[in-house]
């Protein structure tokens, strides 16, 4: 295996998962105390001390019913751990009526995922991660959360204790153009977007709009368009996950 393919090919056969680590205790929308937990996926047999990390954020419409073990999140986190990444999937606050206060829903979710990034930074040495090589990715509502978090961190500068976000992986989760909580400008991280043109839950046009903002701001980006694909097009994962891996390797390769 040549070094240049280390983060593209499925190099490692076995992935070890550490489960249910509490990274934050919050008061949820119902006024109850809630422990938020994360899982860590690590490639078995990789002893590097300069590994890349990806925080994967699950979808589910910001409503109860999905968590960090959403099936495609487990699958893609496992795949990228096999490529040599340390992957983290985290829970975040959800609501019974998320769209009654969409900005509040977005802020809560982004705030919790920011805390998960801070946890990664605080444990970087223990997991052999370089804090300047942390990627944020998410699907559907998790993609919207990832975009929101990147926009807020870019606008305000990295929060205390939070690593700068090295890249964004947005899986069919672009917010509607009026729902952004901060502008998308030249401070936004390099971004790869995957979206099917027949998505009936999150319009493909939202990702086209995001790509246009990135283009206008001269931010490196790639829009992977899957013709005729619905929401959550997991049948195409073998193709788009490799494209994501190649994009991230180009963006992070010299770092």
Plain-language structure description:
- With about 260 residues, the protein is of the alpha/beta class.
- It has one domain (about 5-250): Alpha/Beta hydrolase fold, catalytic domain (Rossmann fold, 3-Layer(aba) Sandwich).
- It is about 30% helix and about 25% strand.
- It contains five helices and eight strands; from the N terminus they run βββαβαβαββαβα.
- It has helices at about 70-80, 100-120, 140-155, 205-215, 235-250, and strands spanning about 15-25, 35-45, 50-55, 85-90, 130-140, 165-170, 190-195, 220-225.
- It has an eight-stranded mixed sheet, sandwiched between helices.
- Strand 5 (about 130-140), helix 3 (about 140-155) and strand 6 (about 165-170) form a beta-alpha-beta unit.
- Helix 2 crosses helix 3.
- The longest helix is centred in the middle third of the chain and has 21 residues, at about 100-120.
Write a concise keyword list for the protein shown above.
8-stranded mixed beta sheet, 8 strands, 31% helix, globular, single chain, Rossmann fold
């Amino acid at each position: 295996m040549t070094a240049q393919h280390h983060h593209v090919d499925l190099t490692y056969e076995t992935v070890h998962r550490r489960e249910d680590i509490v990274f934050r205790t919050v008061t949820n929308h119902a006024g109850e105390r809630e422990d938020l937990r994360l899982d860590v996926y690590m490639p078995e047999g990789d002893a590097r001390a300069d590994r890349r990390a990806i925080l994967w954020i699950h979808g589910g419409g910001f409503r109860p019913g999905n968590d960090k073990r959403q099936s495609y999140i487990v699958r893609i986190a496992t795949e990228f751990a096999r490529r040599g990444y340390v992957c983290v999937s985290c829970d975040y606050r959800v609501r019974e009526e998320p769209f009654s206060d969409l900005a509040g829903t977005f802020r809560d979710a982004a705030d919790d995922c920011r805390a998960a990034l801070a946890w990664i930074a605080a444990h970087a040495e223990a997991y052999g991660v370089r804090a300047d090589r942390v990627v944020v990715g998410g699907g559907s509502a998790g993609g919207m959360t990832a975009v929101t978090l990147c926009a807020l961190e870019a606008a305000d500068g990295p929060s205390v204790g939070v690593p700068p976000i090295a890249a964004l992986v947005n899986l069919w989760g672009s917010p509607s153009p009026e729902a952004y909580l901060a502008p998308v400008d030249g401070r936004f991280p390099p971004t790869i977007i995957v979206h099917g043109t027949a998505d009936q839950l999150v319009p493909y046009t939202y990702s086209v709009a995001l790509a246009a903002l990135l283009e206008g701001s001269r931010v490196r980006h790639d829009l992977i368009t899957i013709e005729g694909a619905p929401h959550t097009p997991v049948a195409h994962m073998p193709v788009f996950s490799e494209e994501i891996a190649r994009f991230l390797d180009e963006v992070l390769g010299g770092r």
